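Appendix C reproduces, verbatim, an entry submitted by the partner laboratory led by Prof. M.T., so that reviewers can inspect both the input and the predicted structure.
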Amino acid sequence: MTDSLSATELILRGQAAARVGRHEEARRYLRQAVQQAPDRVDAWLDLAGVEDDPARKVACLETVLQLEPDNMQAKLGLEMLREEAGRGGAPDPAPALAPQASDELEAVIAEASRKLNESVGPPPPDEVPADDGVLYCANHPTVETRLRCNRCGKPICTRCAIQTPVGYRCKECVNQQQAVFYTGGVTDYVIGGLIALVLGGIAGYLITLLGAWFFALILGPTVGFGIAEAVRLAVRRRRSRYLWAVVGAGIVIGTMPAWLLALTSLWTLVSLGIFLLLAVGAATARLR
């Protein structure tokens, strides 16, 4: 029966099975999905979330990076797996929440928890048996939960839990993990802004000389990508959280003199606007 299903239908069935704890069924659907559509990044990420074997998780995440080298979720997943292996432990095999989890279901769960806790409230710590499994969210003390962050062990509710390829984690641990990838400093922002300012100004001036809108269509993405690559080389490929925004702002500011020159012609203004939109879009997308 499943042979006639499309890859998208298989992925949706796999996510639904994972959501209700039917892990083996979820793996079966998702493995069929990646066989049918080996270029589906979402299928490989979902499969990594339900695989029990750490080696299989690694293989799935490495496949994602082959398809999409800048995929941050896969990079974080591999980093988490290496960290777990370095501590001599194994990643938590608990399945990740499906990315398309229902907002209505979350609302029902939250409302039920609120009504329950309004009536009874959290019991004093010394009155809770050690083995009853009752926990209260560290961020929402009146919300009962059975989830823990698989990195720091802190109790978290469904609103605080973040999906990772190796299980549920709290926001603080995920932010700490992401910080590993941001190695740039203030100097990188200065360098990136200056490069974008100078190159953006030169490119804007050339567009005002050319004047034709089709040149803007051709040069906009090319110049934006080129500026982004020049910045990456100048900062030695270090990553900074907001470098993309600084470079985008630098391009906009750099083209300000060109706007003054373009005031004499409506078509030149249109061409410069098209160029700026495409150049900033390409540069920021490359540096995100």
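Residues 90-109, 125-132 have pLDDT under 50 and may be disordered. Additional entries are available on request from the coordinating office.
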